[in-house]
Specification:
- By secondary structure, the protein is mainly β.
- It has a domain of 96 residues: Immunoglobulin-like (Sandwich).
- Helices cover 0% and strands 53% of the residues.
- The protein has no helices and 14 strands.
- The strands form four sheets. Strands 3, 6, 8, 9, 10 and 12 form a six-stranded mixed beta sheet that branches. The protein has a four-stranded antiparallel beta sheet with strand order 5-4-7-11, with no helix packed on it. Strands 1-2 form a two-stranded antiparallel ribbon.
- The chain is elongated and about 70 Å long.
- It starts with 8 loop residues before the first strand and ends with a strand.
Length: 144
């Protein structure tokens, strides 16, 4: 996979004397909030690369600061609080859903490009659906 990151910088030009100016530039930074659901706290999640402050992991909830355009991978544990990892949400919307057929206790990392302030939620527990279909004979049921 060929990934291109575009970085945003801000610059201010100051006129210090006639014909002389000074440029002050800095990268635009954004906050990446990392939270969890079911359990709502104390889930250890690894972030790669480390953020601008050298932080590379934390227990939920925690925040990271990155320059615009940084590609970040978040890696959750497969289980937390007795619940299996289910999916990622980005700003409340489904981001990566692991789907059925995944071994119990396995997890999928999320890779995002930091292009604004975002909240990534590691969701545990999932939502199970049981469909009961009565068959012709009352002593049998098909559970899907």
């Amino acid at each position: 996979m060929n990934t291109k990151a575009f970085h945003t910088i801000k610059c201010v030009v100051s006129l210090v004397a006639i014909g002389a100016s000074v440029f002050h530039c800095w990268a635009t930074t954004y906050t990446l909030n990392v939270v969890s659901s079911d359990p709502n706290s104390a889930v250890l999640i690894t972030a790669s690369p480390n953020d601008n402050n050298g932080q590379g992991s934390g227990t939920t909830p925690f925040s990271l600061t990155y320059n615009s355009g940084t590609v970040v991978t978040l890696s959750p544990p497969g289980m937390a609080g007795g619940n299996d990892f289910y999916q990622w949400l980005q700003d409340g919307a489904t981001y990566v859903c692991c789907g059925s057929g995944r071994p119990s206790g396995s997890a999928v990392g999320a890779t995002i490009t930091v292009n604004g302030n975002h909240t990534m939620t590691a969701v545990y527990g999932g939502i199970g659906v049981i469909i009961v279909i009565p068959l012709k004979h009352a002593e049998y049921q098909l559970v899907v």
